[in-house]
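Work Package 3 (structural annotation) set out to generate three-dimensional models for the target panel prioritized at the project kickoff. During this period the team completed the workflow that converts sequence records into discrete structure tokens, so that structures can be stored uniformly alongside our sequence database. As a representative example, we reproduce one entry of 898 residues exactly as it appears in the project archive.
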Amino acid sequence: METLDTNNCQPWQMAAHQVLKRLGVDPETGLQPGEIKKRQNQFGRNQLRTIKPKSSWLILAEQFNSIVIWLLFASALISFIFGEWIDGSAVMAVIVINSMIGYVIELRAVRSMEALRKLSSVDTRVRRQEKIQKIPADELVPGDIVLVEGGDVIAADIRLFEASKLQLNESTLTGESEPVPKHVEKLSGKTPLAERNNMLFKGTAVTRGAGQGVVTATGMDTELGNISTLVEGAEEEHTPLEERLDDLGKRLVWITFAIIVVIAVTGILRGKEIMVMVKTSIALAVAAVPEGLPVVATIALARGLRRMAEQNALVNRLASVETLGSTNTICTDKTGTLTENQMTVTRIVLGKNEFRVSGEGLQIQGEFSQDESKVDIDEHPELVQALEAGILCTNAAVRKNPDGKLEAVGEPLEIAILVAGLKAGIIKSELLSKYPEEREVAFDPELKMMATYNSNNGGYRVNIKGAPEAVLEKCAYYMDSSDRFQMEDGYKDFLLRKNKQLAEQGLRMLAFAEKRSDSSKVQPYQELTFLGLAAMHDPPREDVAKAIQSCKSAGIQVCMVTGDQPVTAKNIAAAVGLTDGDSQVVLGSELKKPKNLSEQDRQRFLSTPVFARVSPRQKLDLISLHQNAGRIVAMTGDGVNDAPALKKADIGIAMGQRGTQAAREAADMVLEDDAFSNIVLAVRLGRVIFNNIRRFVFYLISCNISEIMVVFLASLINLTLPIRPLQILYLNLVTDIFPALALGVGKGDLTIMERQPRDVKQTVLTHRHWMQISAYSLLITLVVLIAFGLADRWLGMSVEKTITISFLTLAFSQLWHVFNMREHGSALFNNDVMRNPYIWGAVVLSLLLLLAAVYFAPLSEVLGVVNPGARGWGLISMLSVIPLLLGQLSKHIDISFN
């Protein structure tokens, strides 16, 4: 990486135009394609660390980096030493086949994960070739002209040349907790990092305002890169689930080795050939150790993430998929998540005069009426004054496209005000020409108000909009027609009652006020004059009620957490089925640190479904309250102020359409369409993924243990080994890989969202699962040994046929055993296993491979398998279905292993 040569003069020491000149860029046009390519080659990608895609060769090499593969190599080597060329070659073939299957499967999973990472990459707005465009942040180069606004995360070090009320949160870099104001003037060369206020630094977030600047450093050359402990070549991410599966496999290694020693020593003492016992012991090691568990977990996770992405839910962190399945509390905001986020001003209340406004959404064909009669706006100056205050106090923009349709940018609430103004013939750009904005006081979540200062005939018109109760508390006067009167308590109470009445109808309420001043330094929220109330309609999403009902069935508590007033929140909660309309609403001001709450309040808040007038800081207390009660909490958010809550929650969920970059980066999951129903879908998929992995592990280990027990028990009673080493290896390829993988990618049981959430601390296999695994394994073992004994003693078959019958009985018992993986109590034929097409494909493929082991001469000779004949096939068919029949019966008299 190279740094920019500025003749030892740092960007913050230079005037903005000098920096632009040194970087060779015109701020009005930006960089051209040829220059961009040149600088990308010179400076590299804008990354703190290079996450290199896992190469195909590395994935292939990793298939051979396994203790099991080493044991197989040792077995092949010993076979060659003793002159067993067929056995040795067969073992080598098994190594190649097993490794190639693992390679193909893992390659697809890894590439799928890499593709998903690209879907959630951060974009940055730049000016290139005279056009404003969005590009991936890692494509930025020094000299790029970057445009920033509130909520953006800064992707490189930038020298500002334009700033409007710009403030940043630089706590990630400097530790400063308060927002830092920015300007464009040059600074002294000795200015410390925390005071370089003409610079924007990578990793910080814009809290308000807007600006433009030129990139001066990227990647590891940024200030964040200089102090970063991150190194190139990122560690591969492993989920807790994958790590637990890996630990399970390692523990089974030691158990297997103990069994192998017993089998080998017992066999040798009883006169069996050392070579046979050595190869059998090594083959048993392969049979018992499920080395593919972490790979299958990755496959299941990757497939689940892809399905979530297809449903507009992008998961940023792999480990979050596991946590989603355990989520038992969802704290969701109201606007845009439970509602459509398409606000329309429907009423404006000016004291005792109430005006209705027609037209929906972005339709500007609407009219104002009073008592069902159309009114002339010009005859109601107080209405114009209220609308003007609301319009001046917005940061949104509405413009008409060439096709005549409106295009809006900004908060839906502010867009609704601008559209109402257009219906009255008031255009924001013309209004700003008459009253130029001089200063803005950004919205304060604690005060629930914002203000702008606009020039007015040598003085200033201070416009305020905010929550009605907050604004009315600061109002000393009110307007009636063109006259101003002293605000009396009785009149204020009347306005508050009117506000509550409309809010109870589910309307979102906003108040407008103003004050006149000779100075732009005067405090904005004192001695205000009340202008009016605006009531806005935001209908609930159609799919929310069904999604909330699904949460209730799944044992998931849903809490609405909104900044809106209680009556509005209560009305929407009842409309979407969250409450019955009589539930209590808790105000954010009642929330305290959990340690400061009484036990009575703690229990009350834990069961409360609606929280209103909640600030971002109070969200943290609510999350702590639920987490301290042992709950797994999902929290939604969209603003830069929501980032701390999104990080603190077990699952942070950012909005893709209205969410800021700061919120999206802090979140574990991004909803591209802001739909609450997709949160429920993600929780369901999280449950399905965990259940699939548990089912796969259960099946694989029960099959592997049955193989161990067959050889172990035969060795203890000094029988001829019922199954040969190469047959065990072939069996692993057939019954372990294909049916087990099919179980790992199923769509899940239809009733999975009718169960209580799983305890996040619960292991993959509980004590109950191990008891059931032991029972299934013993059952399969017994039918194999019975088949072996009947073929030998009752039917008087040859050793080759007897071993073939025990091998095929074991193979078919394990193959049919896959159908025992259905849910307890589910229908015999209509269940998640029977509906899984991959299961049927795996069964058919495995059947063909087993028949090939009997009838394909080259393979049968290697495996030592012969045609069992009609009587042999009858014995195999009769005995191999016994574990299936008893397993199916247990589904209706036993408890589920899920």
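The chain has 30 helices and 28 strands.
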